[in-house]
């Protein structure tokens, strides 16, 4: 009898949760009921604004606060800490590597010796390509073409290939002073009068054409005025000295002194050149 009573009490204890869940009821403090979940607290931003005059209640020490990220600090240097050398910036832009094309008019300077022919005079034109890797230095390779009457009064046409190095003393100025020098190769077509003696002893005046070649060097001084960043005007004076290199030079020298009969194939002169240079 006692065992039957104990069995009935145990069955009743085990069935009570099932009956309660089936009815949707969960008495307070029951061990088989789930703990009610704590509703999430609203963020401070979504909380309703309090009246301006209201005083907020102090939060309890147990209240958890939302961790905040450390502030971002931006350091801005003052104006006196930033130093910009504008002259160096302009110089870097101005003196970048340049290429140039020069076109010029030129006139030969034959000297004022009294032995010079009164009708002598030569002029022409020339052009050259220029490479300027830095502001103070440039390479210039050009061709000069001249024609007219030479120092001795002979008709002459001449062409020359000139290889020059240029040094600019003040490349930061608009009016720049430069010196140039190098070597030159040239060829001349000369019409010379000659006398032909016939078999009967008579003499006939005629003109013979000869082709001569030269090698020498030149040195000069000039001015370049930068009209704009891409255009410049050039004026220079170039002196040269050279000697003949053709096969006839030893047999027929170019200059013979009528008084001393001394012969030489070495000559010198000068060129005055006025031109315009286009840079890119």
Briefly, what is this?
With 280 residues, the protein is mainly beta.
Main attributes?
about 280 residues; mainly beta; Porin; 8-stranded antiparallel β-barrel; two-stranded antiparallel sheet; disordered N terminus
How would you explain this protein's 3D organization?
A hairpin with a 5-residue loop joins β5 and β6. The protein has 280 residues and is mainly beta. 15% of the residues are buried. The protein has helices at 2-23, 86-94; strands at residues 98-109, 121-134, 137-149, 155-168, 175-197, 203-226, 231-244, 255-256, 263-264, 266-279. The chain is elongated. It has an 8-stranded antiparallel barrel with strand order 1-2-3-4-5-6-7-10. Strands 8-9 form a two-stranded antiparallel sheet. The protein has a domain at 98-279: Porin, CATH 2.40.160.20. Residues 1-9, 18-25, 29-35 and 42-59 have low confidence and may be disordered.
């Amino acid at each position: 009898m006692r065992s039957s009573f104990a069995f009935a009490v145990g069955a009743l204890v085990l069935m009570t949760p099932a009956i309660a869940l089936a009815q949707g009821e969960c008495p307070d403090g029951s061990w088989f009921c789930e703990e009610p979940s704590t509703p999430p607290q609203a963020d401070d931003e979504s909380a309703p604004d309090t009246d301006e005059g209201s005083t907020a209640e102090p939060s309890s020490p147990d209240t958890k606060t939302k961790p905040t990220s450390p502030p971002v600090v931006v350091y801005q240097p003052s104006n006196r800490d930033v130093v910009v050398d504008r002259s160096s910036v302009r110089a870097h832009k101005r003196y970048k590597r340049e290429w140039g094309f020069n076109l010029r008019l030129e006139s030969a300077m034959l000297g004022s010796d009294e032995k010079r022919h009164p009708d002598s005079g030569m002029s022409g034109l020339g052009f050259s390509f220029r490479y300027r890797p830095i502001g103070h230095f440039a390479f210039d390779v050009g061709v000069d073409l001249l024609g007219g009457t030479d120092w001795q009064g002979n008709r002459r046409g001449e062409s020359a290939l000139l290889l020059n190095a240029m040094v600019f003393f003040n490349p930061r100025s608009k009016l720049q002073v430069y010196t140039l020098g190098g070597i030159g190769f040239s060829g001349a077509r000369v019409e010379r009068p000659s006398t032909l003696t016939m078999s009967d002893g008579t003499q006939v005046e005629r003109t013979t054409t000869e082709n001569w070649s030269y090698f020498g060097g030149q040195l000069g001084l000039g001015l370049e005025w930068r009209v704009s960043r891409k255009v410049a005007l050039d004026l220079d004076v170039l002196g040269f000295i050279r000697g003949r290199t053709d096969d006839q030079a030893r047999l027929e020298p170019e200059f013979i002194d009528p008084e001393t009969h001394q012969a030489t194939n070495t000559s010198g002169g000068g060129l005055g050149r006025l031109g315009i240079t286009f840079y890119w």
